Amino acid sequence: MQKTLIVDALNADTAQDSVRICGWARTRRDLGTCSFIELNDGSCLTNIQCIVDNGTAAQAALGSAAVGAALSVTGALVPSPGREQRWEVRANEIVVFGQADPETYPLQKKHHSDEFLRGIAHLRVRTNKYGALFRIRAQAAQAVHAFFHKRRFILVHTPILTGSDCEGAGEMFRVTTLPSGEKNPGKDFFTRQCRLTVSGQLEAEALAMGMGRVYSFAPAFRADNSNTPRHAAEFWMVEPEMAFTDLTECMELGESLMKYVIEQALVHCEADLRLFDNFVDKGLLTRLRAILAKPFARIAYAEAVRILESSDRHFVFPVVFGMDLQTEHERWLAEEHFEHPVIVYDYPREIKPFYMRCNDDKETVAAMDILAPRTGEIIGGSQREERLDVLTSRLRETGKEPDEYWWYLDLRRFGSAPHAGFGMGFERLLMLLTGMSNIRDVIPFPRTHGTLEF
Fold first, then answer.
1. How far is CA 38 from CA 11, 25, 375, in A?
2. What value, to the nearest 5°, has the Cα angle with vertex 447 and ends 214 and 145?
3. Mean pLDDT of all residues belonging to the chain
4. Which residues contact 115 (CB under 8 A, 6 or more apart)?
5. What DSSP state is assigned to residue 276?
6. DSSP secondary structure, 321-390, as one string
7. How far is the C-alpha of 65 from the C-alpha of 67, rounded, in Å?
8. In Å, what is the CA distance from 236 to each residue of 200, 233, 428?
9. CA of 427: how far to CAs of 136, 211, 222, 325, in Å?
10. Is the pLDDT at 123 greater than 80, yes or no?
11. Which helix (H) or strand (E) segment is 93 a member of?
């Protein structure tokens, strides 16, 4: 008999004589005349209750199956007398696929800390919280693709392996086939130094300069030793690139993308988000709806620094014009000053990468960051430098050899055009969506400094 997802059984229009559901037992209660099994298959937050009468073949088959056991339950879908759900299943046939020893199964019916659950990341998705989180993640990913599809962006796939350092930070993972200790790139697989990408931006630019509007949604890697709640060694980036545009349109696109993903999550994941509103971050739903209610604030970097300097807040990192804003500065602007997401633009050129377009003042670049309450920077982007001479000069200025970027410079030699784009940290958006405070908890299997489990 074909199985029915629990989400579909709970939303059925009418009772059914026979359904088959499969899932993992979340709870088991044995009373005088029957056993009550709460079953969940991950398709929704709500469990479905299964009643197994004593003395039946179904009870015999159930045996001693405890919390965590994988079951198939076949029976009648009937109205539930309880107020928690509309339907329940009266079992007439049970198959136990796999037992879970109650003495060693780590997920019992009690509160487990996020730190504890990180140590059993292979099992934590069976909890209400993490099942809900990863359904929200899935919906957010679908929303990203829908957003760009509606705006006629073309999905492109950029390389994971790269010979270019896009960001200039040098914090990249080396990929080699050479024996340990051998450092001659000429003998390596690619005959040159190869690394894991931190961004597909440069390649996306090349594709945008022939296809107009493209985006990539792919993993990125950074060998960053920062052991903070906002950094991971492997993460996902959404990176659109647009030809024939400027920084203003780039800012508008970033704001629209964030609002669209939030809106879709509120529509399609209301029950899951309510769990986070109740148990993780009180006021989450109110804050998310407020983000949709009005435009993001916009201020130049110089104005942001002036606001920070005139505040009464004592920052760990003192605010000085010309510095890159720290997370504490970003959050204060978004949480306390504006109480809303804010776009900061026109940063000093000295603190930004070579590819960002120099403004006419020669001191700043056409860059922008979107900062959000509780999270800080979620999107960073810029208008790209389309002038060959300026870009060549900027490469040298930042210590790069222009010959290594010959193909990138070709885009400025042959039909150059104004263009812009940004990168959105997908996990940081998920932190905003769920109120989770640690990036390790919005990634199914997080990779961080010193941690490569699962």
1. 17, 6, 36
2. 25
3. 95
4. none
5. H
6. TTSPPPHHHHHIIIIIISSS-EEEEEEEGGGS-TTBPBPTTSSEEEEEEEEETTTEEEEEEEEB---HHH
7. 7
8. 11, 10, 10
9. 11, 28, 14, 20
10. yes
11. strand 87-98
How far, in Å, CA of 57 to CA of 32, rounded?
17
Q: What is the token pair recorded at 397?
A: 């200025």
Structure tokens at 323: 């510095």
User: Residue 162's closest CA among 93, 88, 219, 241?
Assistant: 219
Taking the C-alpha atoms of residue 140 and residue 288, their distance in angstroms, rounded to an integer, is 14
Tokens of 19: 């359904």
The amino acid at residue 159 is P
Best CA proximity match to 153, nearest among 247, 236, 217, 197: 217
* Stretch 247-265: mean pLDDT: 98
CA 86 to CA 19: how far, in whole Å?
15
Give one DSSP letter per residue of 417-445, joined into a string.
--EEEEEEEHHHHHHHHH----GGGSSSS
**Cβ count within 10 A of residue 65:** 22
Alpha helices in 42-179 (DSSP H): 57-62, 114-118, 128-150
CB 284 within 8 A of CB 274: no
User: What is the mean predicted confidence (pLDDT) over 233-238?
Assistant: 97
**Structural domains of the chain, with CATH:** 6-110 (2.40.50.140), 124-441 (3.30.930.10)
| pLDDT tens sequence across 295-324 | 999 999 999 999 999 998 999 999 999 999
Backbone φ, ψ for residue 416 (5° rounding): -60, 150
- Per this entry, what is the length of the chain? 454
How far apart CA 157 and CA 46 sit, in angstroms, is 37
User: Residue 94 carries which side chain, given as an amino acid letter?
Assistant: I
Q: Which two tokens stand for residue 65?
A: 């199956």
Lookup: tokens for 423: 């990168």
Tokens of 17: 């004589």
